């Protein structure tokens, strides 16, 4: 019996030693301490929230709503909402429009919708919305800048994943730069789009019928873009803080053991 118990004890010790060596090998391979790895994952979670909002903003067409004024004696009114890629015009029942509004809308109300993609991405033609003509150069610039922001954001995600899986800590600073640059590009795209909306409102066509009076209001897709840009900039700042050496923070915040001595 003593011989069998010693055998089982030796076998258990051998398994524990093998498991400890595997954990040590995993730590050496990643190159990150568990505490530092947790901080990187938290910063990556913040950046992932910004990335989700960025994709949602760029992929939807509720950047701005164009609303006509309600006409007396008519049962319907017209509204439109557009983004970087397409525009949707809607005919809404005035009975569904809130009574405190002088204009048609909001665009989320049920109605007859007609959505078309902008042709300046394919044939180079300007779009006509409520007898107004878009300025395709400005719209194209806003779309290209937004796509560049998404590409740079994807590169930042790839860099941080390499940091976590391969232990390439030098890519932490590269990922921070990518996330910061993507946030700036998204904000620049929003500003360029704002200029395109102003150019659209001023581009009244002289051909009949006369252009109706319009009001505009920015919608939730643009709000997602603003939030995405700010969150990505915040995530980039967190990654940059993680690249700083630890000794300045250690001198400002000494450990309890040092204070006790």
TrEMBL record:
Q: Which InterPro entries match?
A: PMP22/EMP/MP20/Claudin, VDCC_g6su, VDCC_gsu
Q: How does it assemble?
A: Interacts with CACNA1C. Identified in a complex with the L-type calcium channel subunits CACNA1C, CACNA2D1 and either CACNB1 or CACNB2.
Query: Its topology with respect to the membrane?
Result: Multi-pass membrane protein
Q: What coarse category fits the chief subcellular location reported for this protein?
A: membrane
List the subcellular locations: Cell membrane; Membrane
Origin organism of this chain?
A: Macaca mulatta
**Top-level taxon of origin:** Eukaryota
Is the Manganese keyword given for this protein?
A: no
Query: What protein does this entry describe?
Result: Voltage-dependent calcium channel gamma-6 subunit
């Amino acid at each position: 019996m003593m011989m069998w118990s010693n055998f089982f004890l030796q076998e258990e010790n051998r398994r524990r030693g093998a498991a400890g060596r595997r954990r040590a090998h995993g730590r050496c391979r990643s190159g990150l301490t568990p505490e530092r790895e947790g901080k990187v994952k938290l910063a990556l979670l913040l950046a992932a929230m910004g990335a989700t909002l960025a994709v949602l903003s760029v992929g939807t067409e509720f950047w701005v709503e164009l609303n006509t004024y309600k006409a007396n004696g008519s049962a319907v009114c017209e509204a439109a909402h557009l983004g970087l890629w397409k525009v949707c015009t809607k005919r809404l029942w005035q009975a569904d429009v809130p009574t405190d509004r002088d204009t048609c809308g909001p665009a989320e109300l049920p109605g007859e919708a007609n959505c078309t993609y902008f042709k300046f991405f394919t044939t180079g033609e300007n779009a006509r919305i409520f007898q107004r003509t878009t300025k395709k150069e400005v719209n194209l610039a806003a779309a290209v800048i937004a796509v560049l922001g998404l590409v740079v954001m994807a590169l930042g995600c790839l860099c941080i994943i390499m940091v976590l899986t391969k232990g390439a800590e030098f890519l932490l600073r590269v990922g921070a730069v990518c996330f910061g640059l993507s946030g700036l590009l998204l904000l620049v795209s929003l500003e360029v789009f704002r200029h395109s909306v102003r150019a659209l409102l001023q581009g009244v066509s002289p051909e009949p019928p006369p252009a109706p009076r319009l009001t505009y209001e920015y919608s939730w897709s643009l709000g997602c873009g603003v939030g995405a840009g700010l969150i990505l900039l915040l995530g980039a700042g967190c990654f940059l803080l993680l690249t700083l050496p630890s000794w300045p923070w250690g001198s400002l915040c000494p450990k309890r053991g040092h204070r006790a001595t």
